[in-house]
Design goal:
Rossmann fold, 236 residues, alpha/beta
């Protein structure tokens, strides 16, 4: 189904964010991406923004609104990792990851919600991770920031659910990216042994779920956590 709706994907210049942006373009959405550097995929509008800086986000939203129109679908995807065990983790290792992954989501959703409230329609899709609820050694900062997105989406649903706005969480597992490709083969094989599906996902498989959540078919789904992890995190 083709649509003219305006979508903004944060961190849409690489990895999962890029695949999501490509999928929205293919479905006919007017698609913008934020990036600190690099460009989004062909057919997208790339705007410069740092999700830790509210002023830069406001400028980016203003540019998208002038060029494409008010943002109707927001995909909060931008995130960072600074993995290390708790006893070695510095205050900055913790604060910078939480400020980007959770604080960045707060900033972009707050800015996007104004237009959604005016339109009485909106889709907020937060990209979390299987480790948000499953846990992962060496990722206390990252998994905490990703688990927090569940409470965020559910509180947002209670605030804005009656205004035609949904808020959902997509929790990917291991995805085929440059990062997983760089892992030693025995490490990859060990990970795959723990995944019931026996393989990593393609970024496009995550993108398909995200675009479905933005569609009219998902209008009555809100506050949900949808795992795209091949069964890795079942029950978490």
């Amino acid at each position: 189904m083709s649509t003219e709706r305006v979508v903004l994907v944060t961190g849409g210049n690489r990895g999962i964010g890029r695949a999501i942006a490509e999928r929205f373009v293919a479905a006919g959405y007017r698609t913008a991406v934020t990036a600190r550097s690099g460009e989004g995929p062909e057919g997208t509008l790339t705007v410069r923004a740092d999700v830790t800086d509210a002023a830069s986000l406001d400028a980016a939203f203003t540019e998208v609104e002038k060029t494409l129109g008010p943002v109707e679908v927001l995909v909060a995807n931008a995130g960072i990792t600074k993995d290390t065990l708790l006893l070695r983790m510095t205050e900055d290792d913790f604060d910078s990851v939480v400020s980007t992954n959770l604080g960045g989501t707060f900033r972009v959703v707050k800015r996007a919600s104004k237009g959604m409230l005016r339109a009485k329609w909106g889709r907020v899709i937060l990209i979390s991770s299987v480790v948000g609820l499953y846990g992962s050694a060496g990722q206390i900062n990252y998994s905490s920031s990703k688990a927090a997105l569940v409470g965020f989406a559910r509180s947002l649903t209670r605030e804005l659910g009656a205004r035609g706005i949904t808020a959902n969480v997509v929790a990917p597992g291991f995805i085929e990216t440059d990062m997983t490709a760089a892992l030693p083969e025995e490490t990859q094989a060990e990970y795959k042994r723990n995944i019931p599906a026996g393989r990593f996902a393609s970024a496009d498989e995550v993108a398909g779920v995200v675009t479905w959540l933005a569609s009219d078919d998902a209008a009555y789904i809100s506050g949900a956590v949808i795992p795209v992890d091949g069964g890795l995190g079942m029950g978490h």
